[in-house]
Protein backbone atom coordinates (compact mmCIF):
# COMPACT_ATOMS: atom_id res chain seq x y z
CA UNK A 1 0.00 0.00 0.00
CA UNK A 2 1.24 3.52 -0.83
CA UNK A 3 2.36 5.92 1.84
CA UNK A 4 -0.23 8.07 3.61
CA UNK A 5 1.09 11.59 4.12
CA UNK A 6 0.04 14.42 6.39
CA UNK A 7 -0.04 17.99 5.08
CA UNK A 8 -0.72 21.26 6.86
CA UNK A 9 -3.12 23.90 5.54
CA UNK A 10 -3.67 26.90 7.76
CA UNK A 11 -4.41 25.62 11.24
CA UNK A 12 -5.50 22.16 10.04
CA UNK A 13 -3.71 18.91 9.19
CA UNK A 14 -4.97 16.73 6.33
CA UNK A 15 -4.38 13.06 5.54
CA UNK A 16 -3.40 12.44 1.91
CA UNK A 17 -4.31 8.94 0.70
CA UNK A 18 -3.38 7.85 -2.85
CA UNK A 19 -6.52 7.50 -4.98
CA UNK A 20 -5.85 3.85 -5.90
CA UNK A 21 -5.50 2.81 -2.25
CA UNK A 22 -8.56 4.84 -1.29
CA UNK A 23 -10.63 2.96 -3.88
CA UNK A 24 -9.30 -0.40 -2.69
CA UNK A 25 -10.25 0.49 0.88
CA UNK A 26 -13.71 1.58 -0.26
CA UNK A 27 -13.29 5.17 0.94
CA UNK A 28 -15.77 7.66 -0.47
CA UNK A 29 -15.06 11.30 -1.25
CA UNK A 30 -18.53 12.25 -0.07
CA UNK A 31 -18.34 10.49 3.30
CA UNK A 32 -16.95 11.75 6.59
CA UNK A 33 -14.41 9.80 8.64
CA UNK A 34 -13.07 9.87 12.17
CA UNK A 35 -9.50 8.91 13.07
CA UNK A 36 -9.13 7.31 16.51
CA UNK A 37 -5.90 6.23 18.21
CA UNK A 38 -6.31 2.61 19.37
CA UNK A 39 -2.86 2.28 20.96
CA UNK A 40 0.63 3.65 20.30
CA UNK A 41 1.42 3.24 16.61
CA UNK A 42 -2.10 2.08 15.63
CA UNK A 43 -4.96 4.29 14.47
CA UNK A 44 -8.47 3.27 13.43
CA UNK A 45 -10.35 5.09 10.66
CA UNK A 46 -14.13 4.85 11.03
CA UNK A 47 -16.89 6.20 8.82
CA UNK A 48 -19.09 8.82 10.48
CA UNK A 49 -22.79 8.15 10.49
CA UNK A 50 -24.69 10.64 8.39
CA UNK A 51 -26.52 13.07 10.61
CA UNK A 52 -30.11 13.90 9.84
CA UNK A 53 -30.32 17.58 9.01
CA UNK A 54 -32.97 19.52 10.85
CA UNK A 55 -35.70 20.73 8.42
CA UNK A 56 -35.40 24.18 9.99
CA UNK A 57 -31.65 24.16 9.38
CA UNK A 58 -32.28 23.20 5.76
CA UNK A 59 -34.58 26.18 5.29
CA UNK A 60 -32.07 28.58 6.86
CA UNK A 61 -29.24 27.32 4.65
CA UNK A 62 -31.50 27.45 1.59
CA UNK A 63 -32.34 31.09 2.32
CA UNK A 64 -28.66 31.89 2.76
CA UNK A 65 -27.99 30.41 -0.68
CA UNK A 66 -30.93 32.09 -2.40
CA UNK A 67 -30.88 35.57 -0.88
CA UNK A 68 -28.55 38.26 -2.19
CA UNK A 69 -25.90 39.75 0.08
CA UNK A 70 -27.94 42.89 0.70
CA UNK A 71 -30.85 40.66 1.79
CA UNK A 72 -28.58 38.79 4.19
CA UNK A 73 -27.63 41.91 6.12
CA UNK A 74 -27.99 41.68 9.89
CA UNK A 75 -31.46 42.85 10.88
CA UNK A 76 -32.94 42.29 7.41
CA UNK A 77 -32.37 38.57 6.93
CA UNK A 78 -34.33 37.83 10.09
CA UNK A 79 -37.47 39.16 8.40
CA UNK A 80 -37.42 36.15 6.03
CA UNK A 81 -37.56 33.71 8.96
CA UNK A 82 -40.72 32.45 10.64
CA UNK A 83 -41.40 32.14 14.36
CA UNK A 84 -39.96 28.61 14.44
CA UNK A 85 -36.88 29.40 12.35
CA UNK A 86 -35.74 32.52 14.18
CA UNK A 87 -34.87 30.86 17.55
CA UNK A 88 -33.05 28.06 15.72
CA UNK A 89 -31.21 30.64 13.61
CA UNK A 90 -29.92 32.28 16.81
CA UNK A 91 -28.67 28.87 17.97
CA UNK A 92 -26.92 28.28 14.63
CA UNK A 93 -25.08 31.56 15.10
CA UNK A 94 -23.87 30.43 18.53
CA UNK A 95 -22.89 27.01 17.15
CA UNK A 96 -20.91 28.60 14.33
CA UNK A 97 -22.73 26.90 11.43
CA UNK A 98 -23.89 30.40 10.46
CA UNK A 99 -21.52 33.36 10.78
CA UNK A 100 -22.29 37.07 11.12
CA UNK A 101 -19.45 38.20 8.87
CA UNK A 102 -17.92 41.67 8.65
CA UNK A 103 -15.20 42.23 6.07
CA UNK A 104 -14.11 45.26 8.10
CA UNK A 105 -14.90 46.69 11.52
CA UNK A 106 -15.95 49.96 9.88
CA UNK A 107 -19.29 48.41 8.92
CA UNK A 108 -22.00 48.62 11.55
CA UNK A 109 -23.93 45.60 10.28
CA UNK A 110 -22.70 42.13 9.41
CA UNK A 111 -23.72 39.87 6.53
CA UNK A 112 -24.86 36.33 7.38
CA UNK A 113 -22.97 33.51 5.68
CA UNK A 114 -22.83 29.77 6.20
CA UNK A 115 -19.62 28.27 7.57
CA UNK A 116 -19.18 26.43 4.25
CA UNK A 117 -19.37 29.71 2.31
CA UNK A 118 -16.74 31.26 4.57
CA UNK A 119 -14.41 28.27 4.15
CA UNK A 120 -14.87 28.36 0.37
CA UNK A 121 -13.98 32.06 0.22
CA UNK A 122 -10.88 31.40 2.33
CA UNK A 123 -9.83 28.57 0.00
CA UNK A 124 -10.38 30.76 -3.09
CA UNK A 125 -8.38 33.58 -1.53
CA UNK A 126 -11.31 36.01 -1.41
CA UNK A 127 -10.73 36.48 2.31
CA UNK A 128 -7.68 35.73 4.43
CA UNK A 129 -7.47 32.36 6.26
CA UNK A 130 -9.04 32.72 9.68
CA UNK A 131 -10.63 36.07 8.81
CA UNK A 132 -14.07 34.51 8.71
CA UNK A 133 -13.67 33.08 12.20
CA UNK A 134 -12.26 36.32 13.57
CA UNK A 135 -14.95 38.42 11.92
CA UNK A 136 -17.64 36.05 13.15
CA UNK A 137 -16.36 36.21 16.72
CA UNK A 138 -16.22 40.01 16.58
CA UNK A 139 -19.73 40.26 15.17
CA UNK A 140 -20.92 37.70 17.73
CA UNK A 141 -19.56 39.76 20.62
CA UNK A 142 -21.27 42.84 19.23
CA UNK A 143 -24.56 40.96 18.94
CA UNK A 144 -24.22 39.75 22.52
CA UNK A 145 -23.65 43.30 23.74
CA UNK A 146 -26.63 44.46 21.74
CA UNK A 147 -28.84 41.73 23.18
CA UNK A 148 -27.83 42.76 26.69
CA UNK A 149 -28.57 46.38 25.93
CA UNK A 150 -25.04 47.50 26.79
CA UNK A 151 -23.92 48.58 23.36
CA UNK A 152 -24.47 52.15 22.32
CA UNK A 153 -25.02 50.99 18.75
CA UNK A 154 -28.25 49.30 19.76
CA UNK A 155 -29.86 52.59 20.62
CA UNK A 156 -28.62 54.15 17.41
CA UNK A 157 -29.94 51.28 15.28
CA UNK A 158 -33.30 51.19 16.99
CA UNK A 159 -33.61 54.93 16.59
CA UNK A 160 -32.75 54.72 12.91
CA UNK A 161 -35.02 51.78 12.10
CA UNK A 162 -37.99 52.79 14.25
CA UNK A 163 -37.74 56.47 13.48
CA UNK A 164 -37.22 57.54 17.10
CA UNK A 165 -35.77 60.95 17.64
CA UNK A 166 -32.40 60.14 19.27
CA UNK A 167 -30.57 58.12 16.62
CA UNK A 168 -32.50 59.71 13.77
CA UNK A 169 -31.57 63.17 14.94
CA UNK A 170 -27.95 62.19 15.38
CA UNK A 171 -27.60 60.76 11.89
CA UNK A 172 -29.74 63.33 10.12
CA UNK A 173 -27.93 66.08 11.98
CA UNK A 174 -24.66 64.87 10.52
CA UNK A 175 -26.24 64.53 7.09
CA UNK A 176 -27.72 68.03 7.27
CA UNK A 177 -24.33 69.45 8.21
CA UNK A 178 -22.82 67.64 5.25
CA UNK A 179 -25.47 69.05 2.94
CA UNK A 180 -24.88 72.58 4.19
CA UNK A 181 -21.10 72.31 3.85
CA UNK A 182 -21.57 71.17 0.27
CA UNK A 183 -23.65 74.24 -0.57
CA UNK A 184 -21.49 76.80 1.27
CA UNK A 185 -19.13 78.24 -1.28
CA UNK A 186 -16.28 76.26 -2.74
CA UNK A 187 -12.56 75.70 -2.29
CA UNK A 188 -10.56 74.35 0.62
CA UNK A 189 -13.12 75.01 3.35
CA UNK A 190 -15.81 73.09 1.49
CA UNK A 191 -13.46 70.21 0.64
CA UNK A 192 -12.22 69.99 4.22
CA UNK A 193 -15.79 69.80 5.55
CA UNK A 194 -16.67 67.08 3.05
CA UNK A 195 -13.72 64.96 4.14
CA UNK A 196 -15.10 64.78 7.66
CA UNK A 197 -17.90 62.45 6.59
CA UNK A 198 -17.46 58.70 6.36
CA UNK A 199 -19.22 55.42 5.67
CA UNK A 200 -18.87 54.46 9.32
CA UNK A 201 -20.82 57.43 10.68
CA UNK A 202 -23.02 58.83 7.91
CA UNK A 203 -23.22 55.89 5.50
CA UNK A 204 -21.77 57.84 2.58
CA UNK A 205 -18.54 59.47 1.40
CA UNK A 206 -18.04 62.40 -0.96
CA UNK A 207 -14.72 62.91 -2.79
CA UNK A 208 -13.69 65.67 -5.13
CA UNK A 209 -10.20 64.35 -5.70
CA UNK A 210 -10.15 61.63 -8.37
CA UNK A 211 -7.11 59.87 -6.93
CA UNK A 212 -8.77 59.71 -3.51
CA UNK A 213 -11.92 58.31 -5.11
CA UNK A 214 -9.93 55.62 -6.96
CA UNK A 215 -8.02 54.71 -3.82
CA UNK A 216 -11.23 54.44 -1.80
CA UNK A 217 -12.91 52.37 -4.52
CA UNK A 218 -9.97 49.97 -4.44
CA UNK A 219 -10.22 49.67 -0.66
CA UNK A 220 -13.94 48.93 -0.97
CA UNK A 221 -13.62 46.65 -4.02
CA UNK A 222 -14.96 43.57 -2.22
CA UNK A 223 -17.96 45.45 -0.79
CA UNK A 224 -18.74 47.03 -4.16
CA UNK A 225 -18.60 43.63 -5.90
CA UNK A 226 -20.87 42.17 -3.22
CA UNK A 227 -23.41 44.96 -3.70
CA UNK A 228 -22.98 46.44 -0.23
CA UNK A 229 -21.59 49.71 -1.56
CA UNK A 230 -22.53 51.84 -4.59
CA UNK A 231 -20.34 54.46 -6.25
CA UNK A 232 -20.83 57.04 -9.00
CA UNK A 233 -19.18 60.14 -10.49
CA UNK A 234 -21.46 63.11 -11.13
CA UNK A 235 -21.21 65.90 -13.69
CA UNK A 236 -20.34 68.37 -10.91
CA UNK A 237 -17.01 66.61 -10.42
CA UNK A 238 -17.88 64.87 -7.17
CA UNK A 239 -17.50 61.15 -6.52
CA UNK A 240 -20.31 59.71 -4.40
CA UNK A 241 -20.01 56.44 -2.47
CA UNK A 242 -22.95 55.25 -0.36
CA UNK A 243 -24.04 52.14 1.52
CA UNK A 244 -26.56 50.26 -0.62
CA UNK A 245 -28.78 49.72 2.40
CA UNK A 246 -28.96 53.46 3.11
CA UNK A 247 -29.67 54.23 -0.55
CA UNK A 248 -32.46 51.67 -0.79
CA UNK A 249 -33.96 52.90 2.45
CA UNK A 250 -34.64 56.37 1.05
CA UNK A 251 -34.56 56.07 -2.77
CA UNK A 252 -38.22 55.02 -2.94
CA UNK A 253 -39.26 57.93 -0.76
CA UNK A 254 -37.37 60.43 -2.92
CA UNK A 255 -38.77 58.97 -6.15
CA UNK A 256 -42.34 58.92 -4.83
CA UNK A 257 -42.05 62.57 -3.77
CA UNK A 258 -40.79 63.51 -7.24
CA UNK A 259 -43.66 61.70 -8.94
CA UNK A 260 -46.09 63.87 -7.00
CA UNK A 261 -44.50 66.98 -8.51
CA UNK A 262 -44.08 67.99 -12.13
CA UNK A 263 -40.56 69.29 -11.54
CA UNK A 264 -38.70 69.81 -8.30
CA UNK A 265 -35.30 70.97 -7.03
CA UNK A 266 -33.07 68.97 -4.70
CA UNK A 267 -33.64 71.61 -2.02
CA UNK A 268 -37.43 71.16 -2.26
CA UNK A 269 -36.96 67.39 -2.23
CA UNK A 270 -34.94 67.65 0.96
CA UNK A 271 -37.63 69.78 2.61
CA UNK A 272 -40.46 67.44 1.60
CA UNK A 273 -38.68 64.20 2.50
CA UNK A 274 -36.99 65.47 5.65
CA UNK A 275 -33.61 64.28 4.34
CA UNK A 276 -30.43 66.31 4.03
CA UNK A 277 -29.77 68.09 0.71
CA UNK A 278 -26.54 66.13 0.31
CA UNK A 279 -28.15 62.74 0.82
CA UNK A 280 -30.94 63.71 -1.60
CA UNK A 281 -28.35 64.81 -4.15
CA UNK A 282 -26.48 61.52 -3.89
CA UNK A 283 -29.67 59.48 -4.24
CA UNK A 284 -30.73 61.53 -7.28
CA UNK A 285 -27.41 60.85 -9.02
CA UNK A 286 -28.09 57.12 -8.87
CA UNK A 287 -31.74 57.57 -9.91
CA UNK A 288 -30.54 59.52 -12.96
CA UNK A 289 -28.06 56.77 -13.76
CA UNK A 290 -30.88 54.19 -13.55
CA UNK A 291 -33.10 56.25 -15.84
CA UNK A 292 -35.73 56.85 -13.14
CA UNK A 293 -35.41 60.64 -13.27
CA UNK A 294 -34.00 63.34 -15.55
CA UNK A 295 -32.46 66.73 -14.87
CA UNK A 296 -34.29 69.13 -17.19
CA UNK A 297 -31.87 71.90 -16.32
CA UNK A 298 -29.47 72.71 -13.49
CA UNK A 299 -30.98 71.24 -10.29
CA UNK A 300 -34.47 70.95 -11.78
CA UNK A 301 -35.48 67.30 -11.58
CA UNK A 302 -38.38 65.30 -12.97
CA UNK A 303 -39.45 61.68 -12.58
CA UNK A 304 -39.67 59.71 -15.83
UniProtKB/TrEMBL annotation:
Residues 149-179 have a biased composition (Polar residues). InterPro entries: WH-like_DNA-bd_sf. Residues 108-191 are annotated as: Disordered. Residues 113-127 have a biased composition (Basic and acidic residues). This is Uncharacterized protein.
